[in-house]
Predict the 3D structure of the following.
Amino acid sequence: MKSLSFFASLAAFVADVFRVVALPSGLTSTDQSITSSCQCTAGNIPVALDVDLPLDPTDDPINSTNTRNLRATFGIHTIFCQPPHTATRSSQDHVQLLLHGSTYTSQYWTWPFNGFQNYSYVAHACAEGHITVAYDALGVGLSDRPSNSADIQLPSAAAIAAFFSHHLKSGELTTSLGLPTQRFKRVIAIGHSQGSVVYNYASIFQGSKTPFDALILTGHLHDPGFLESTKFGRPAARDVDPGRWANLDPGYISSSNRTQYYPPDNSTFSADIVKLDQLTKDVSTVYYTDAAFAVYVPAKGFKGPVVQLVGSEDQVHCLNGGDGFVSCNAKVLQASEEAFWPDSKNFTMVVRQGQGHDVNLDFGAAETFSLLTELVEQFTH
Ligand SMILES: *[C@@H]1O[C@H](CO)[C@@H](O)[C@H](O)[C@H]1NC(C)=O
Ligand SMILES: *[C@@H]1O[C@H](CO)[C@@H](O)[C@H](O)[C@H]1NC(C)=O
Ligand SMILES: *[C@@H]1O[C@H](CO)[C@@H](O)[C@H](O)[C@H]1NC(C)=O
Ligand SMILES: *[C@@H]1O[C@H](CO)[C@@H](O)[C@H](O)[C@H]1NC(C)=O
Ligand SMILES: *[C@@H]1O[C@H](CO)[C@@H](O)[C@H](O)[C@H]1NC(C)=O
């Protein structure tokens, strides 16, 4: 019974996502309901990039001088969700910009399990009255995939995140989706893992001009063990699933199994979730991790509040043996991590006991979701 409803819900979601209609502007869009009380609109937003990328992607992108200019427009698949009562307001106080991790898509935030009841942060936020925007990173999900994987590096990813923030504030994001114009005063950037690294990079690169007003970085620490493990590389996507990815250059990576994203104790998560995760996994590029060291410096000038949140059983960070195990004790991490946010008006480290790397996908998810919306409310009052 359980797996029947699980596959039925996957099928319904996939059917929804691919029921794409053409808009006059050349955009594509599909209306889908996450729950009956949440209004979601999805579409492909053209994002024009004009960004300098290191010619050697293992250079520090912050100060590399050996660069090439990437000037191109890519379609970025976006899903905008709001509770019905905000839909008529042209000016909104805030919006949450959600960016998923490596080998995931925006579906990380709208996990299609059990009618979106259990693991969809978007559905939770919407029920609590919050507006969210999630997008598929360049090269994954329904976003365009550049033929050259090296177009996807921290600077291009950060430029896309900045584009979203600026266009949410100017009102252009909602109009691009065919909705009435809504201007947002503040953008709360919520990332997971690689998505958190992208926001962290943007904050270092732009300092006081960072286009986000507050950051919540889940699955993210500046631990030496993580950096150490990035040196072992990850399997090329074309080797992981030749059926889907045979044509991708070897800079595109994926993962062979999802074990490390869950706690070691298999009674703390659902086996169905891991199955769905394995079925819907996507790609990333090796260049994010090649340059991950670039975010191990203080984000000078970023003044907004910052929260970093990890699970104590996170096998990518806390239980990563590369550094002889960083102690994921909230007090210890508060002291070591706040050095990376010297100008933040309030840096807070949160450790969720018993949770793994994917804090949205284990049995602790519901409590994490409540905490996230509480934090957003604190930031905006
Ligand atoms: C780039 O800056 C980092 C500090 O952010 C420094 O450690 C590194 O040496 C610099 N690299 C070059 C090539 O200047
Ligand atoms: C999903 O949520 C429902 C309603 O809150 C709950 O009864 C059920 O136990 C949850 N299932 C899982 C697998 O977490
Ligand atoms: C899953 O991948 C990890 C490496 O990330 C590996 O150590 C482990 O043996 C794999 N597990 C299975 C069941 O394939
Ligand atoms: C959990 O792991 C144990 C030991 O590896 C195994 O015997 C058991 O079948 C697993 N349970 C589930 C639900 O996967
Ligand atoms: C800092 O932020 C945390 C989390 O939002 C909050 O609980 C705490 O009260 C804040 N501290 C100050 C001094 O504002």
